[in-house]
Design goal:
Layout: E1 5-7, E2 11-19, E3 23-30, E4 35-42, H1 52-68, E5 77-81, E6 90-93, E7 98-100, H2 101-108, H3 113-132, E8 135-136, E9 145-148, E10 153-155, E11 162-163, H4 187-190, H5 197-213, H6 223-232, H7 247-256, H8 268-276, E12 285-287, E13 295-297, H9 308-318, H10 328-343, H11 347-363, H12 366-385, H13 389-406, H14 412-427, H15 431-449, H16 454-467
Antiparallel strand pairs: 1-2, 2-3, 3-4, 4-6, 5-6, 7-9, 8-11, 9-10, 12-13
Helix pairs in contact: 3-5, 3-8, 5-7, 7-13, 10-11, 11-12, 12-13, 13-14, 14-15, 14-16, 15-16
């Protein structure tokens, strides 16, 4: 058996375990500490490449960016040598033993929704951390997701990550150069648009769609065909592939795949909140299905909402210390801030504040439940004003289901939300559903308050407008 190659008089390379477009990863032994590690090297044939300097700089950036990230869902960087010639540069990382998601999909096709949700939660937790320190991965795909033998999930390969902010590295790609994996790239990556955390969330949407449907939403024989599909085509509804997918989960996936970045969920934290509602309550500790790797449940280190007050309340909760009482006056004062922004037309700012407050009030339990509900409904109204009608519709349908479970049918808030849902169904051209929702609402209002109530008049006018819509609309 040949003697292993020794790097830096310390790392003995045992076997090659992966080779990508830029580097080769070896299983190695740290002779100083006596532990197994992963060592990444630049491929020998790239050192003389015409873009060799950019490749070397990208390798340095991967090491430095990844070293900034400290999360169980991202392999830890232990050591690196980055200042010599390309053939001497290396990076030493945590060795992840497990199976790539690409192999899982190749052997299993579609997976149970609970397993897909749990996996996505792991990925989102890692992305939330990366985005929090202004790092965007830009290449989320099954080949870069590893499921470890302990049931945790690792996001790999930050080689083309983009660091945002004043200390961000210089651009390493040429103008109009497409960088990423075309099957999983967001529309803005094809047309040199602005890269944001929503770029990673779009790729997550592709992965989730593939896990649930058993196929990617867009296919093409070449990059040009894929680009056209990502930029112009709408994906087929998930439930056309499998009927057991919860409509709310389908909505979330389709929201992640929205063409404009600002129509997607505004953060990985928001996606986590949505996904948690789809995780079966009976699963605790580990989630197992025949033929699939076991996943830990719930995922480790789920992030807490990103406001100082929430952090404080969450810390007290971990210590089993009851949260400090919050007075009704304080709630009212705090809700006044986003309401002022809303009335001033600063809808994006109001939306962010409403969502942060909703998280905070949720942590207070029963004491904050009413205010949390108000914040979520107001956040949906902000989305309506921003033109995010599909997202607002899904949010309000979810809130309506919760309201109906706890309030009387003719509760004022239920009636108002029903009106908004009917109007949004109209706005997204789901006319038959809009007529049913608004018609039922109108009949209930007339029976309770008579035909001249304000809400009844709005429902009636909306119904008349739908029936008078120009030819060419969808039939009722």
């Amino acid at each position: 058996m040949p003697e292993p190659r020794i790097i830096a008089k310390r790392y003995a390379l045992r076997e090659s375990i992966e080779e990508g477009g830029m580097g080769q990863v070896w299983r190695a032994n740290d002779l100083t500490l006596g532990r197994d590690v992963a060592v990444k090297l630049i491929l020998d044939n790239l050192t003389a490449h015409r873009d060799g300097d950019a490749i070397v700089e990208r390798f340095r950036r991967e090491a430095r960016v990844t070293a900034q990230l400290h999360h169980p869902g991202i392999p830890q960087v232990y050591d690196a040598f980055l200042d010599g010639s390309a053939d001497r540069m290396f990076m030493v990382m945590e060795l992840v033993q497990g199976i790539s998601l690409k192999r899982v999909i190749g052997s299993s096709g579609s997976v149970p929704p609970a397993w897909a949700v749990c996996l996505a939660l792991h990925i989102c937790a890692a992305l939330h951390h990366a985005h929090d320190v202004h790092v965007i991965h830009r290449d989320i795909k099954p080949a870069n997701i590893m499921i470890a033998v302990d049931g945790t999930v690792k996001v790999l390969d930050f080689g083309i990550a983009m660091a945002l902010g004043v200390n961000a590295p210089i651009r390493l790609t040429k103008p109009q150069q497409i960088i990423g994996s075309p099957h999983y790239m967001a529309p803005e990556q094809f047309d040199a648009g602005r890269i944001t955390p929503q770029t990673d969330l779009y790729a997550l949407g592709i992965v989730l769609y593939e896990l649930l449907a058993g196929e990617r939403p867009f296919e093409g024989g070449n990059v040009v065909n894929l680009m056209c599909a990502h930029v112009l085509q709408q994906p087929a509804p998930l439930r056309s592939h499998r009927a057991d997918v919860d409509p709310r989960l389908e909505r979330l996936v389709l929201d992640l795949l929205a063409k404009p970045a600002d129509a997607r969920p505004n953060s990985a934290r928001h996606v986590i909140d949505e996904l948690l509602g789809h995780l079966p309550q009976q699963h605790r500790g580990y989630l197992s299905f025949p033929g699939l790797p076991t996943l830990t449940v719930p995922p480790v280190l789920m992030p807490v909402p990103d406001t100082p007050r929430v952090q404080t309340v969450a810390s007290r909760s971990v210590l089993n210390v009851p949260p400090e009482p919050v007075s009704t006056e304080e709630h009212t004062d705090r809700l006044g801030t986003p309401q002022a922004l809303f009335e001033a037309g600063r809808l994006s700012e109001a939306l962010s504040v409403y969502e942060a407050l909703a998280h905070e009030f949720d942590i207070l339990g029963v004491q904050g439940a009413e205010d949390a509900l108000t914040c979520r409904i107001q956040a949906a109204r902000c989305r309506i004003g921003l033109g995010q009608h599909r997202r607002a519709l899904g949010d309000l349908q979810h809130e309506l289901a919760q309201l109906r479970a706890h309030r009387a049918p003719m509760d004022t808030m239920i009636l108002e939300v029903r009106l908004h849902v009917g109007l949004l169904l109209r706005d997204v051209h789901r006319f038959a559903e809009a007529v049913q929702e608004l018609g039922n609402l109108y009949n209930d209002l007339v029976g309770e308050y008579g035909p001249d109530s304000a809400l009844a008049n709005q429902a009636r006018e909306a119904l008349i407008g739908i029936r008078r819509r120009p030819p060419g609309g969808r039939s009722i």
